[in-house]
Amino acid sequence: MKKIFALVAAIAIAFQVNAQQGSTLPDTKIKDLNGKAVAFNTTVEKGKVTLISFWATWCIPCKKEIKNIRGKLSGWQTETPGFNYMTVSVDDARAMAQVRSYAKSQGWDFPTYHDPNSDLKRSLNFQNVPFSIIVDKEGKVAYMQTGFEEGGEDVLYEKVKEIAAK
Q1: What are the phi and psi torsion angles at 120 (to 5°)?
Q2: Phi (first) and psi of residue 26, to 5 degrees
Q3: Any residues with CB less than 8 A from the CB of 23 and at least 6 apart, and which?
Q4: Is 102 strand, coil or helix?
Q5: Of 3, 55, 117, 163, which has the maximum CB count within 10 A?
């Protein structure tokens, strides 16, 4: 019975994710680390493939995923010109200082945003972090993934290369 429930849940998650692929990015307002509101769809540069990691300060797998990506990012960007990376925290509004402090303490040199009221999370219709999306050169969602396991960053990068080659 547990296996059947797990299978049904996995299919439901896959359907939810696949239903959004090919959609344009919403113009939902998020904040940069200085608290300035920006439209999410303006944070992604057209003509470039962008990997976006959604995370939270309390999410250990999220932090591991971003750490692993950060360690490989320079090489990936050399290998795949026109590839960008950014993160969006889904922590609530009270955690803005903690998000800013954590990003700074980790030496993040890529754009980091905050979705303090979960407006973007609702717009993209996802529930759990870590959650990643890859946006194609036209600004459309090309791939979505929930969860992280060791080495998963390489799977994401393979998808980035595949999408960039189109």
Answers
A1: -70, -40
A2: -70, 155
A3: 140, 141
A4: helix
A5: 55
Tell me how long the chain is: 166
Helix ranges (H only) for the chain are: 2-18, 60-79, 96-105, 119-124, 152-164
How many other CB atoms are there within 10 angstroms of residue 145's CB atom?
16
Q: Which domains does the chain have, with CATH numbers?
A: 2-164 (3.40.30.10)
Q: Is pTM, for the whole model, over 0.85?
A: yes
pLDDT digits (tens, 9 = 90+) for 107-161: 999 999 999 999 999 999 999 999 999 999 999 999 999 999 999 999 999 999 9
Complete edge-to-edge strand list for the sheet that includes strand 29-32: 37-39, 29-32, 112-114, 83-89, 49-55, 131-135, 141-146
